[in-house]
Design a protein that fits this description.
Strands 1-6-2-5-3-4 form a 6-stranded mixed β-sheet. The protein has a single domain, classed as 3-Layer(aba) Sandwich (Rossmann fold). It is an alpha/beta fold. Helix 3 runs parallel beside helix 4.
């Protein structure tokens, strides 16, 4: 699955492949895994996710990445490794690409997501239930791109992250209110959105 958005300006120095990790064991079990304590070493790709990645790499239809950068969670690390191997790249970690922390919802069934998203729609700064505020997620995600825009130019950078952070980032890049992040088309596991120059 691919979504392509127009950049905000003609002044992007790089092109970005914004990728959600492949189908994971957390997806398979229907549980929320958002804390580094649980997500870095556990809940990697599911068998289906591994098959997704094999198919995606075999049928690659996007520009070839020149860099692969990923969240340090196991599911994103494994996803990045599969793509990086195809292009002979060494992936690098950026913890700012981590999953949004869902606070005391950690470990609960994923049916609890909508109650948090309803609060997001009212206030992008809320931290109810100990969740990471949407505004904080947007800030750290945008900072990743801002840093690359300062460091390099003419590159195609694959950023492997998670559903909520990527939807929040795309909302911010589009200049839309952060409270509307769930109005974005949900990003499927292993989906890639192309953003930046030449799009």
């Amino acid at each position: 699955m691919s979504n392509t958005l127009q950049p905000l300006s003609d002044h992007w120095r790089n092109r970005y492949l914004l990728m959600r990790h492949g189908h994971s064991q957390a997806n398979q079990q229907g549980v929320i895994v958002s804390s580094p304590e649980r997500g870095i070493e556990n809940f990697g790709l599911s068998t289906y996710g591994e098959q997704q990645l094999a198919q995606l790499v075999a049928d690659w239809q996007w520009p070839a990445p020149t860099r692969v950068v990923h969240s340090d969670f196991l599911r994103t690390t494994q996803t990045a490794a599969r793509v990086a191997a195809k292009f002979g790249l060494a992936p690098s970690v950026d913890a700012r690409l981590r999953e949004r922390n869902f606070g005391d919802q950690e470990g609960l069934e994923d049916k609890h997501y909508p109650s948090i998203w309803a609060l997001d729609a009212e206030n992008a700064d809320h931290q109810r239930h100990g969740v990471e505020a949407v505004s904080m997620v947007a800030q750290r995600m945008q900072a990743v791109i801002a840093d690359w825009e300062q460091k390099v130019s003419g590159e195609t950078i694959l950023l492997v992250s998670h559903g909520d952070p990527l939807q929040i980032l795309l909302t911010a890049l589009a200049g839309k209110p952060l409270t509307t992040h769930r109005e974005q088309t949900p990003l499927a596991p292993a989906s890639i959105t192309l953003y930046g120059y030449g799009v």
